[in-house]
Amino acid sequence: MDPESGASAPRALTAPVDSARVVLDRQRDRAERMLNRARLMVLVLLGLAALVYAPNLTRRLNWVNISVLVPILAWTILQGELFYRRPKLPVWIGVANPVADIAAVTAIIGGYAFAHSAALALKTPIFLMYFVILAALPIAASTRKAAAVACMAFGCYGTLVAFFLISGRLPTVMNPVTASQAAGVSPLDEGAKLLLLAMAGAIATYATNWQERLATSFSRATEEREQLEARLARAQLQSLRLQLHPHFLFNTLNTINALIGTDRHAAERVISGLSELLRMSLSSASEQEVTLAKELELLAHYIEIQQIRFQDRLTVNFRIDPDARYALVPNLMLQPLVENAIRHGIAPRAAPGHVVVTAERRGDRLELSVVDDGVGEKASRDHRDGVGLGNTRARLLSLYGSEHRFEAGGASSGGFAVHIEIPYRTDTATKEPLRRESPHEALV
């Protein structure tokens, strides 16, 4: 329900706007899916590199590569089959994957140390995979997850270095140049690597936080803009619809003024009908859309007023599909179209005239038409497209956008025809039977 109109507003005006958090989570979900494909490609490349290096490595080192790469590769493929076909990934996947990657890198370095030497383990290029893992954090992780993973990477490598030093497995050489050519490592080199790892973790955490704040602020700005656009559209619709009230009232008062001097009793009936018509119009003044049944009921009161004025010169027939009775249509849309047909089509000529109002459902579309056999388009070219038709065009465009069709022009009967096509929607909460008691709603 539209809080400002009290009626079921068009979907274009009340489409729910996702919160910034929901939008961000959806983007991270998509990013995690892309990262898993990238992870699979990286693991395949590492496997190929391990095969290339295999002839130059010992059997124990090759076993370390196999024992780490095969499980992590299997986990990557398995989670793709188990979770990535779902509309939404489990929340823990975003933490499990970087943790598993860091554990795998740490396991390879530790395995190399026990299979060969700690110096070889710390000099292996696999250490660079820590930076690859940290670089991917801003894409799919939250700030807290990024900080936790960064601390884990720093802690795992720092723990390995400390363990090797304390256990005596790691020979040290103070000169970094000499260490690059010797069987040991330089504490300065390892300290620099830890410092770089800490800096990379801090940058990844900051980048994640910056991306999170940027996405949140953009989403909120989009939400505020859409809300402003919706309020503006509602205000424009309200303004367009309210234009019809003085327009219709002015024309009806002219009718009363014309009858007072010639038929006082008829003028009193018109005043009574106008009172009922205004009551119904005001009761739905805040609604942008009403059921077709309600619109036809209001139209019947207007036609009664016009038939008092034109008597036998005016006949209005309704051809209403029963399925269309509960369809939602713009409030006070048919009355100005029928008024246009009577005023510019029937009134200028002396012979009797007919107006036919048709409503038909065709699948998910509702077709409406108002056709008269009056003087036609050419004879009233300067008057046809006035407040009624222009207002209707603008309201349909605001309510339905490209989902509507509006055509107005000469009819095959020689008169004038207006054809409208809008989405078929119903409001089951306001179902009410189509009034058939009125002689003006006889089905032809």
Indicate the topology.
Blueprint: H1 11-14, H2 20-53, H3 59-82, H4 93-115, H5 118-123, H6 129-140, H7 143-167, H8 176-181, H9 187-260, H10 264-283, E1 289-291, H11 292-310, E2 314-320, E3 328-330, H12 334-346, E4 353-362, E5 365-372, H13 387-400, E6 405-410, E7 416-423
Parallel strand pairs: 2-4
Antiparallel strand pairs: 1-3, 4-5, 5-7, 6-7
Descriptive overview:
The chain is of the alpha+beta class and 444 residues long. 62% of the residues lie in helices and 10% in strands. Strand 6 (405-410) and strand 7 form a beta hairpin. Helix 6 runs antiparallel to helix 7 and helix 12 (334-346) packs antiparallel against helix 13. The longest helix is centred in the middle third of the chain and has 74 residues, at 187-260.
Q: Structural class of the secondary structure composition?
A: alpha+beta
N-to-C span: 36 Å
Quaternary organisation: single chain
**Would you tell me the overall average pLDDT?**
79
Strand order of the largest sheet: 2-4-5-7-6
Order of helices and strands: HHHHHHHHHHEHEEHEEHEE
| Beta-strand content bin | 5-15%
The helix tally amounts to 13
Helicity, in percent?
55-70%
Radius of gyration: 38 Å
- Contiguous runs where pLDDT drops below 50 for at least 5 residues: 1-18, 429-444
Task: Describe the largest sheet.
Answer: 5 strands, mixed
* DSSP strand count: 7
